[in-house]
Fold this sequence. Notes:
Strand content: 5-15%
CATH superfamily of the largest domain: Dehydroquinate synthase-like - alpha domain
Number of domains: 2
CATH architecture of the largest domain: Up-down Bundle
Strand order of the largest sheet: 1-2-9-6-5-3-4
Helix content: 40-55%
Mean pLDDT: 97
Shape: globular
Order of helices and strands: EEHEHEHEHEEEEHHHHHHHHH
Structural class: alpha/beta
Radius of gyration: 20 Å
Oligomer: single chain
Number of strands: 9
Amino acid sequence: MTHSPTANWNYPTAVKFGAGRIKDLPQLCKDNGFKNPLLVTDPFLATQPMVADAVSALKAAGLGIAVFSEIKPNPVDSNIEAGLKAYRAGKHDSVIAFGGGSGLDAGKVIAFMAGQTRPMWDFEDIGDWWTRADPNGIAPVIAVPTTAGTGSEVGRAGVITQESTHTKKVIFHPGMMPKVTICDPELTVGMPQKITAGTGMDALAHCLEAYCSPFYHPMGEGIAVEGIRLVKESLPRAYKDGKDIEARAHMMSAAAMGATAFQKGLGAIHALSHPVGALHDTHHGMTNAVFMPYVLVYNRKAIETKINRLAAYIGLAPNFDAFLNWILDLRKELHVPHSLKDFGVGKENFAVMAKMAPEDPTAGGNPVPLTEKDALDLFEKAYNGTL
């Protein structure tokens, strides 16, 4: 029987970490002045006991509570509009963002938009667009992650797909950071293997791309390195035995670490993955996992020395090939498709996706500049499975 560590952190926000900490939700709502929160989650979780239990506990504590769950796996603007309608109709004063990346992102963006007068796209993560927002119009959020991947529970942004253009947009504001996050690994033990793999590889992609980004952020870099080690030690364990609470806890930490680290930047894994997700509605983490080795090879000339250092730290031979082989072996172990073809993604949108990838906000953090021509080449390689 393994055990989950228990701790309270105040970085990057207040984090209540440990098995069973979901029981603190009603008190944390009261401590933060929530009287009538809207619980935002996805349609599947809305039918599950963990949400029903949370709603019962909140009601028993005398809080007003309603559930909104009209969210796609990759949330779209109409989901946010429907959520805002529910928020205003119910006269809510706060949001509990409950779930995987989609529930957390949608919940945070609904809370952010609750008191704004400008359209959501005016707050895309471009330059200082976030300063257009009225900070007093942002409703407070408590985040409750149920997967270990996106790290959105400690992030200041939400990813929403613009339906008219099929483009994923990052909506950003420092005030979107949840007031409190409850990281309870017991909420992740029911994750099926495929979701454990996809979300875990998302956490790894966040840490790895943050580490490789050329921008100067030593704090982010240090967090990324330990996050990668935790994934190496714990993701195969959590995949093999979903009830291994210690492995689940470490993966929850790695997810939060990835999202904390990627203030330093992301890169081509995400820039290639976002258009695929937007046009083919694929699982974001699994899409990242497919692209990971192809992007590593593409970036090799710029990152080899750093990867040698990283490989040594996580217990591999201190060279690039050892690291690349570990990634390939891990993907095999987790049944990640090796190619886009195996993943069920056809070539019909390659030209348009190759245009979209270099324009994605994450492309700017890639250590090798990503051009349309290179993006097309990477799509072809990933489709054919040739490194």
